[in-house]
Structures are given as structure tokens and as C-alpha cells.
Amino acid sequence: MTTKQQEKPSVQQLIVKSHNRKGKKTIEKLVPVLLFLTATISVLTTFGIVFTLIFETFEFFSRVSLMDYLFGKEWLPFSGKEPLYGILPLLLGTFKVTCIALLVAVPFGLGAAIYLSEYASERVRKTVKPILEVLAGVPTIVYGFFALTFVTPILQVIVPNLKIFNAVSPGMVVGIMILPMIISMSEDAMSSVPSSIREGAFGLGATKFEVATKVVLPAALSGIVASIVLGISRAIGETMIVSLAGGATPKFDFGFTDSIQTMTAYIVQVTTGDAGYGTTIYYSIYAVGFTLFIFTLAMNLLATYISKRFREEY
Amino acid sequence: MRYLQHDLVMKRMNKRLLSNKIWKMMFMIVTSFAMIALVILLYRIVSQGLSYLDFDFLMNFASRIPENAGIKAALVGSLWLMSVVAPVSIVIGVGTAIYLEEYARQNRLNDFIRVNISNLAGVPSIVFGLLGLTIFVRLFGFDKSILAAGLTMSLLILPVIIVAAQEAIRAVPNEQREASYGIGATKWQTIVRVVLPSAIPGIVTGSILALSRAIGETAPLVVIGIPVILQFLPTGYLDTFTALPMQIFDWAKRPQEEFQFVASAGIIVLLVVLISMNSVAIIIRNKFQKRH
Q1: With contacts defined as CB-CB under 8 Å, which chain B residues touch A58?
Q2: Residue among B44, B117, B248 whose CB faces A150 most closely
Q3: A43 to chain B: which residues are within 8 Å by CB?
Q4: Axis crossing angle, helix B244-253 with helix B258-291, rounded to the nearest 10
Q5: Which of A24, A52, A233 lies closest to B186 in CB terms?
Q6: Potential cystine with B263: which of A135, A236, B160, B252 (Cβ 3.0-4.6 Å)?
Q7: What is the pLDDT confidence band of residue B70, given thresholds at 50, 70 and 90?
Q8: What is the ipTM of this complex?
Q9: What Rg, from alpha-carbon coordinates, does chain B have?
Q10: Do B270 and A142 touch (CB under 8 A)?
């Protein structure tokens, strides 16, 4: 021990030694490169999605004409002799579900957001928010089961000729599914409206309701609209609820009581069946997936644009 | 001469106050809707599934007879799946977050990476399924294996983990970094010994929440073509498997009413797994927060 202590190098020597250590320098140079590589994986994922969708969709359109796909009013890929690939019935099915979902999610979401940000006490807010988080964490397969076994039977009592598979029940449940997101985003937007503006309105003698609807709501409008647009995107891309409770009969009509099929439910139908690799049906799921991707991407970009462009800075 | 017609003002005032009261009630009712929906959902599932939920249910394989149906293969399969998803998504996600927060300069490439991550978060999960089917199942030839499904799920939850880790890293005060540089530490030493330890509670919480999303996610597994009726357990990462939500999906689709109860029992198992994961996230966060 004593000899070792005598040989102990001075601090200066230690610094010089540590500066000359090679391993340390390599690590410092290597790490940013490695981390950059991990960051590129998300970019590669996007490229992967876009390229697979484009390539396989190309294959699909070498067999089916683009015009038939875009404007065809019949989607009958499984009919033996002459399969028809017109996307409109699937789009209409998706549209119906999204509309009903919004009819549930927008009034309930906005109402709850107004209540939480303008009326509720801190204690109420602290109990409601975790419940919303639980609601947001429930897997969609559970919502789908709920729609099929609970909401549909109840609706069948109220609506006389409602089929087991219909657009209303999955639509309502998709609405419940996107509620937490709409409530929390809208509530954030409303809470960030400064109190001084509210106090100004109160000072003029406005009631709480008038302040909420005529002052806070307009001021927070961009955030609220963005939350609704994101809700639309989620509703379009939702899969398990619609494939469990929506059925599998794409039709070009405007009824809500009959069985429908959405874009996502069609992809599920094909992939759970046994459409062989390389068949036109196999490639059709990529065309439908690409259509779905474009719609949701457009919605997501729109939401980002709205919340950036129309953000009120206080 | 009276300038103010008192009774008119009073009438109008009362009307406005009344409408305020009515709307407040409306907003309260609307808010409770979400909670009522949650309570009904949970109550329905628990009351339906509880009678089917016993030790045999956890220990049996899937069966055509509802009484004998069990969830063993799916439960074990979900665990295998998570053993791929957790390391892959956390390593890539935290790496990306460190790069973006600590190393990335403000340039076009890094802006593009940022925008790309937020867009990726909005891509429907079924589209990730198509990606997994094309790249991992067909191109790489992993077939319908744990590896293929695990990599697909990892990419799906990657944006969630990146954003959570970014927020946790951003919350570490700059003074701590400066102090570390001040005593001669290098950048990487600062990140590993100063930034990451204080960011860990946030990273862990975000990761567990993302993983619990991956456990409940069904659509990508359906698209990849994961089977549902298996009478054996996987022994390696290239084996095929089934997972909890897939099993529930299969039971829920069956026409016999008994299978609804079996599906409910499966959902209870899934929800118990999710809730215990979320509790673990909260416990870890609280424990780490005390130390600072």
C-alpha cells in the first residue's frame, strides 16, 4: 500500500493521461453516429410504409383500372367470375361510421371540455382526468366487443329494423373511443386562454356560460378544431370496432341500419381469410391501405396546420 | 324619468342566469357520460366473464368447447411478444430522443426527422400491419413469427416512446449539464451520468404506457396473419404464436353465445395485465421522484 501511494501520479499527469486515452475519444465520436442511426429508423419506417404501399398498389392497378377503382360503385372482390373493385362503397362505410362517431364525440367532448375548464373545481378535474386516461387506454378490441354485445342489442330495441351489423353501433362506440382525446386536447386549448380575458368579460357582467361560449370558445377555436380533425383521422383508421360490429357488406347507399364495411374492416376480412399471395385480392388490400393512409395523412397534416397557423399567442 | 327599466333588466338578467344554470347542468351531464360509459363497459365485462375466469382458464389451450377454452397460449404469446417489443422499441426510441435533444443541430434533416415522427404517430395501426406483412413476413422471411410481429409492434409504438423520452430529457435542467461540463466531463459522460439518470422516471413511465398499448393492439397482428387456435407454446423467436387481443377477437366473432362469456374472461385478463403495468409505471415514477 505504501509503495503504491508513493507512486501515485500528480493530478496534472492524470489529466494528461485521461486526455490521451484513445477509447474515450472514439466513444465521443462514435456515439452521435450510432444515435443518429437510431433516429433514422423512424424515417426508414415512413419510407418503408410509403414504398410498400406504392409498389403493391402499382401491381393492383396493373390489373384493375384506376377509374374503375375511384368511381366504381360496387366492391365485390370475392364474386367468382367478374370481381368488381370500386372503392366508393368502402369510403361510404368509413364515412358513415366517422359521421356518427363525430355526432357523439363533438358535442360530448366539447361539453365536457367546457365543463372541465370553465366550471369544474380542481377536485372534480383531478378525478375526471384519470378516468379519461383509463378510457383512452382501453384496447379497441374491447370497445369492439362492447359495441357488438352491448350497444347493438340496446339499439335494436330502440331502432326497429336495425341489423346485428350496422353503422350506428360501431359509430357510437368509435365516438366514445375518441372522446378522451378530444376532451383533453380541447380542454388544454381552453385552459391556455388567459384569465385576464375572462375577467374582462366577467367585469362587463357576462355570465359564466356567456364567457365560455363567446370568449373562451372562439379564442381556443384552433386547438378545438385541431382536436376534432385528429379525432376524424382516428375514426377513419380505427379497425377492430368496425370489423367486429360493422359487418362485411359494402354497399353504396345512405342507410345506417344495414351492415356496412369500412376500408379497415375490408383489410381485416382479407387477411383473416385465405386470399393467396399474388392474387388480385391480395394486392387490393394495399390499394385500400394506401387510400386509408392518404386520408389519415391529410387529416393529420391539416390538424398540424390548423393548430400552428391559427394559434393565438397571448 | 327613468333611464333604466328595472323590471326589464331584471327579467333579462334572470333569463341569462337561468340559461347559465341550465347549460351548467348540461355540461355536467355530458361530462359524466364518459364516466358512465366506462363504468358500464367494465361492469358488463366483469359480470359476464367472471364466472368463466378460473385457474383452468389460465392454464388451458384454446378449444372449440367454451367450457374448456383457455388463454394459456395467448398469455404466454403476449409475454414473448413483449420480450421483443420492449428492448427494440426502448433502445431505438430513447436513442432517437437523445440524438434529437442533445446532438441534433437545427437543420433541415433534423427538422424532417421531427416532423416525420409526429406524422408517424398518426398513421393507423393497420397500415403498420401492412408494412410488417410486406417487409418482415415476406421480404425478410420471418413468416408469422414472434420476431416479425414484435418488430412491427416496435415500430408502431416508437413515436410514443420517442416523444415521452424527449420530454423527460428536456425536463432535465441545463444547470446540471453545465455543472457536469464544468468538472471536465465529456458530452457522452454528461448524458449517461447526469441527464439519463434524472430522465429515467419519465422515460420508464412513457415506455410502459407505450408497451401497454402494444399489448392491446390487435389490427397489425390480424394483418400479419397471426393464428388464433394453437395447441402448443412457442419455443423460439421464429416460432408462430398467438396473443391476448387476437384470442379475444376470435372468441368475440364466434356466433355461439357462450363464447361471449369466454371473450369477457379474456378481456378481464387483458385489462388486469394493462392495469398492473400502469400501476408499475406509477410506482416506478414515484420511487424515482423521491430520490431527487
Answers
A1: none
A2: B44
A3: 112-113, 116
A4: 150
A5: A24
A6: B252
A7: confident
A8: 0.91
A9: 26
A10: yes
Mutate which: B25, B26, B31, B223, vs A, most A CBs within 10 A:
B31
Q: What is the mean pLDDT of each run of 10 residues along chain A (314 residues)?
A: 62 74 77 94 95 94 92 86 89 95 96 94 89 89 94 92 92 96 94 93 94 94 94 95 91 88 94 83 94 95 88 67
pLDDT digits (tens, 9 = 90+) for A112-153: 999 999 999 999 988 888 888 888 889 999 999 999 999 999
Tell me what the mean pLDDT of segment B197-217 comes to.
92
- Å from A93 to nearest chain B CA? 17
Nearest CA in chain B to A230: B122
Burial class of residue B80, CB neighbours in 10 A (0-12, 13-18, 19+): buried
Q: Out of B17, B213, B224, name the one closest to residue A207 (CB).
A: B17
**3-state SS assignment for residue B266:** helix
Pick left, alpha or beta for residue B106 (phi over 0 → left; psi -120 to 50 → alpha; otherwise beta). Answer: beta
Specify the DSSP element, H or E, that contains A85: strand A84-85
Nearest CA in chain B to A264: B126
